[in-house]
């Protein structure tokens, strides 16, 4: 038998922290325990019926059975540009050159560094954060420097602490607001400052906007980085229909912004994938054009869940960050546990509740855990009840 060796880029990946949790979860499930899984960020609510109808109709049209166009249907990209105008007031996006369709935003985020990162190029990445960007940059032998997100700085990176030399050397910075896992939002001043720095030092700004529609206060909506004047000189924003319209399984997203950055991503994609199913894009158009009232409804559901869980956590003496956006609660590991992993493992083993350990998103997440609000309120309440009795 040949001894096939993994490439070094796979072998040198950090140990997958969630694998241990999956192992414990499987053990607990074998004992017949009723497991409540609050680990994964996957909406439990179904995709609205009108979007499914649009897919069914489009799926019957042989026109969409062929290979999609690489950049995506122009009509989908036009709908994205229009949605950006209506939702964020971002005017004048050129759907032909400044918008590209993605097979979910993860695909775009993972592929983007292929277009711009050479071995040794420096990417700055906030941490704790969605783990895909540093892995993608690392695959290319890019250098990654982490910018820690701390509670005392409202989970924003301290841009002033980054040296001028680092800014000069940096090729790219990845930020994600509203943030997974901390649920923090970035204020306008933060984006203004970041855009200013990126323009000054010619740093590519990747902003991951997957959660802008999962917010709780209509008077304090998350913004797009493209609202900042001059952002288009340096920024590409990744967005998705996944969280906005409960379409995680459909795999549809978009990247929007600087023409060269969009073009580079497009060149990579031409060579590695063949685009998103056009019937799905057709349904995506309908979602973007008519989905706002449904998204509002979902926000109501998450708000109710959030408030119930926060109340119960408060009663249990567990400290947390009140989320302004996202369907995550970022909470502190109660005293008496050595680490996030120890707490999370005990909660699964003894109570059958799956949480995500904070350090799984990066070292500064140690001491924290994440709860996903992606189950109904009674189930969430039961989970907190069980945790209380640990
Ligand atoms: C911060 C963040 N960005 C991007 C994604 C990817 O979403 P999708 O590929 O479904 O668009 C996720 C998924 O959980 C996420 O949490």
TrEMBL record:
Q: Where is the Aminotransferase class I/classII large domain?
A: 34-387
Per its record, the protein catalyses: (2S,6S)-2,6-diaminopimelate + 2-oxoglutarate = (S)-2,3,4,5-tetrahydrodipicolinate + L-glutamate + H2O + H(+)
Q: What is its EC number?
A: 2.6.1.-
Q: Gene3D superfamilies, alphabetically?
A: Aspartate Aminotransferase, domain 1, Type I PLP-dependent aspartate aminotransferase-like (Major domain)
Q: Which Pfam families match?
A: Aminotran_1_2 (PF00155)
Task: Tell me the InterPro entries matching this sequence.
Answer: Aminotransferase_I/II_large (IPR004839), DapL/ALD1 (IPR019942), LL-DAP_aminotransferase (IPR050881), NHTrfase_class1_PyrdxlP-BS (IPR004838), PyrdxlP-dep_Trfase (IPR015424), PyrdxlP-dep_Trfase_major (IPR015421), PyrdxlP-dep_Trfase_small (IPR015422)
Q: Where does this protein act, in terms of pathway?
A: Amino-acid biosynthesis; L-lysine biosynthesis via DAP pathway; LL-2,6-diaminopimelate from (S)-tetrahydrodipicolinate (aminotransferase route): step 1/1
Family, per entry: Belongs to the class-I pyridoxal-phosphate-dependent aminotransferase family.
Q: Which HAMAP family match?
A: DapL_aminotrans_1
Q: What is this protein called?
A: Aminotransferase
**Record organism:** Oceanidesulfovibrio indonesiensis
């Amino acid at each position: 038998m040949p001894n096939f060796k993994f490439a070094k880029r796979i072998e040198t990946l950090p140990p997958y922290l969630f694998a241990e949790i999956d192992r414990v979860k499987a053990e607990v499930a074998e004992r017949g325990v009723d497991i409540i899984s609050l680990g994964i960020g996957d909406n439990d609510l179904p995709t609205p019926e009108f979007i499914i109808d649009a897919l069914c109709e489009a799926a019957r049209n042989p026109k969409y059975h062929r290979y999609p166009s690489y950049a995506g249907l122009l009509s989908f990209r036009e709908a994205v540009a229009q949605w950006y105008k209506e939702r964020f007031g971002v005017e004048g996006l050129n759907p032909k050159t400044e918008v590209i369709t993605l097979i979910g935003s993860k695909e775009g985020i993972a592929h983007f560094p292929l277009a711009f990162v050479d071995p040794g190029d420096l990417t700055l990445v906030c941490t704790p954060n969605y783990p895909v960007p540093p892995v993608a940059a690392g695959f290319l032998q890019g250098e990654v420097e982490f910018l820690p997100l701390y509670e005392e700085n409202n989970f924003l990176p301290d841009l002033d602490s980054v040296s001028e030399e680092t800014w000069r050397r940096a090729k790219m910075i990845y930020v994600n607001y509203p943030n997974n896992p901390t649920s923090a939002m970035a204020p306008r001043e933060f984006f203004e400052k970041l855009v200013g720095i990126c323009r000054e030092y010619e740093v590519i700004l990747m902003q991951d906007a997957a959660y802008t529609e999962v917010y709780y206060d209509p008077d304090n909506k998350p913004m797009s980085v493209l609202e900042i004047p001059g952002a288009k000189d340096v920024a590409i924003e990744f967005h998705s229909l996944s969280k906005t319209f409960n379409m995680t399984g459909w795999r549809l997203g978009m990247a929007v912004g600087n023409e060269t950055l969009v073009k580079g991503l497009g060149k990579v994609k031409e060579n590695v994938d063949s685009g998103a199913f056009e019937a799905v894009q057709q349904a995506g158009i309908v979602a973007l054009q008519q989905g706002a009232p449904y998204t509002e409804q979902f926000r109501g559901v998450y708000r109710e869940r959030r408030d119930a869980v926060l109340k119960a956590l408060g009663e249990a003496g567990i400290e947390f960050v009140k989320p302004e956006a996202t369907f995550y609660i970022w909470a502190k590991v109660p005293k008496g546990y050595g680490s996030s992993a120890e707490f999370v493992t005990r909660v699964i083993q003894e109570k059958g509740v799956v949480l995500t350990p904070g350090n799984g998103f990066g070292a500064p997440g140690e001491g924290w855990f994440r709860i996903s609000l992606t189950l109904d309120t009674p189930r969430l309440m039961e989970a907190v009840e069980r945790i209380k009795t640990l």
